[in-house]
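Input/output pair, single chain:
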Amino acid sequence: MEEQRRIVGLLDRAAEIRRRADAARAKARAIIPSLFLDMFGDPATNPKGWPVTTVGKLANVELRNGISPSKSGTVTGKVLTLSAITRGAFDAAAFKESLFAAPLAPEQSVSRSSFLICRGNGNPELVGRGTFPTADMPDTAFPDTIIALRGVSGELSPAYLSALWATDYMRRQIKAAAKTTNGTYKISQGGILSFELPLPPLPLQTAFAEQAQRLEATARALDTAAAKAEAMAAGLSAEVFGDSPNRGNSHG
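Output:
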């Protein structure tokens, strides 16, 4: 009985760690939009008077639709699912094994330099959501429900573009450009090229990126802490409820 009380106490502590880590993680990530508004102002009103351009007028912009797996393909590979880019942060684990007609070309694979945009979804709130991958994944394709935006790093820092893209200002443009067919909402490359963007000086964007990266690093550390607490709670629960995979085999 004493041992059970001790374990229940540890479970309570693990749950409290998870709650605190979740709250701190959410707070760290919530600071980034506030930091964006403080440094650049609301893009809808542009109070700092930054020059405004369109995606299509950026010097080296390139858009590319992803590829579809082939049912008759013979080349094995991986392809992202939409959840990799529609949950607020890139999820490198959101992929599935697939077959392709040919080996992936470099421009068809996931790259940290590509801003990946959800091209179509039944949920209008997910259409147009975008993020940069956190790593190069040369063996993983992005599907035809995703558009890759490339070649903008000379004028837009990844952190600035990511934060700008999540604003209400950009969401209004995305929703206005989205078309619906049979319950699926889609945006086109032409629609993306027409989106208007404020262009603050690149050094200011870089300063924002450095602060945003520190906040993201804090959030990732809290993610790790929450995962460890979750694992500890799972192990303790197994002990309490007697469902440990090794339980019952200790006597040979």
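Residues 51-199 form a domain with the Adenine-n6-DNA-methyltransferase TaqI; Chain A, domain 2 fold (CATH 3.90.220.20). The helical segments are 2-40, 158-165, 168-177, 189-194, 202-241.
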